[in-house]
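Ticket opened by: R.M.
Priority: normal
Category: complex prediction / small molecule

The reporter submitted a protein together with iron/sulfur cluster and asked that the result be attached to this ticket for the collaborator who will pick it up next week. Submitted input follows.
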Amino acid sequence: MEKDLTCLTLEQLESLVVTLGGKRFLAKYLFSFIHGKNTQQIDDITPLPKAFRDKLIGQGYCIGRIQPADQLTDPDGTVKFVFALHDQNRIESVLLTDENDRKTLCISCQAGCRMGCTFCATGKLGFARNLTAGEIVEQVNQAVAICGKVNNVVYMGMGEPFDNYEATIDSIHILNHPDGHNIGQRHITVSTCGLPDSIRRFAGENLQVRLAVSLHAPDDDLRTKLMPVAGKYPIEQILRAVQGYQQHGGRRITMEYCMIEGINDADHHARSLARKLKGIHAAVNLIEYNPHSGCPFHPSSRNRIHQFRDRLAEAGIETMIRYKRGAGIKAACGQLGATQLEGLL
Ligand code: SF4
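Result attached by the on-call engineer:
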């Protein structure tokens, strides 16, 4: 899929068009028809001169689309899409609709993941490959075609966005562009397991995108047991990178914390977390853990989650609780790829 036009930002399309001897403004037609109108064939972009369409097709350019392979709806309204890629790898995206009918799409950036978090089905699956920017954006194109406008996009599906850095950044520019889906940068969240160099690099992109960091433990020993990558990047390093990011743009960070019974959910963990976050402009998302086969953990009780939240609140830390959604169709946090995983167990 080397010549997939879906992967290119408007600026990249402009360079391509000029290289092929066309007028720069023709790139706008390509971009808006591919991302705004979901056009399937280059030949259907009729505002482009026929000779130029023929040139693109003759040189092997195409509009790469991913194929919907399955769609499941949970009784709570959550929808999970399974998409087949051209090489038969499968990825999943999840659409959540809130009480105001606003839609958030959780998208994948890799087929599998190499971070190996022990509580995550995707991590257990292992890593197949990076997605292209086109395959990342296509999840939005397809969801919009099936379910209508998407208001928010979160990079919290399969894979680590900063382990596929360039494609992630290109896909943000494509999704944000007014001639495409026009999703405001503040309505896009990138969630990382905490790669300090990439957080620093991301600060330099000057995007208004929201950043979330998966912490899941208040100390390095426990965190390494849950997230092997923590052995390489201590929490202090991550928090220093986060502070640098905030000095650059002043934006609040969300710390993701998955509540696992008897592992990371005691009051002393909450107090320790609060101490760690002192001086950081951060809110904490407590995520109700979602069990799946192949993983021995259980979710904390709701009472425990509330107490944990109260300890953080006592320390002045704003805390939200994210209850399980879509667990019945294995669409909840940490469950993506669980069906593929069951097939392997
Ligand atoms: S939690 Fe995220 S980073 Fe960790 S293995 Fe799962 S997909 Fe990868």
